[in-house]
Amino acid sequence: MNEILEILEKDARVSPEEIARMLRMPVLKVKQAIKKFEKDGLILKYKAVINKELMHSEDTTVRALIEVNIMPQKDLGFDKVAERIYSFPEVTSCYLISGTYDLLVVVEGRNMRTVSNFVAEKLSCLENVRGTATHFLLKKYKEDGVVLKHKEENKRIAISY
Asked: For domain 53-139, which architecture applies?
């Protein structure tokens, strides 16, 4: 992979000036390369990894990993079915995978009921969907290469009888 892309993938906040210093390149060349990567679709988005567990908000979301077994469409393969699935606003990621299931779909909702309703009312009833297995995320330890720090647990004194 290109060195500029590697640096930005690890930390998108690194400025072109810092990258130029790190790589001993002219700043203008770095800026031009970044613009080209954006234009060519290599850089799609700049993103912050947020540890939502540390947020003091009631606006929490539930995330589920859903394995989906599908029947590929004739002459179109898995792509058309995957496109139909990832078009739902609840779907945050969609991957073609090997193994027992064909797709791994990441879904977010307000609570477990909204996610289960999505599976029951939208996903499972699609014509080419043959089966699903839903796994709710209970706790995140690491995301996008970043280890997430967790809230201090309540340290209660053990009581024994």
From this structure: 2-Layer Sandwich (3.30)
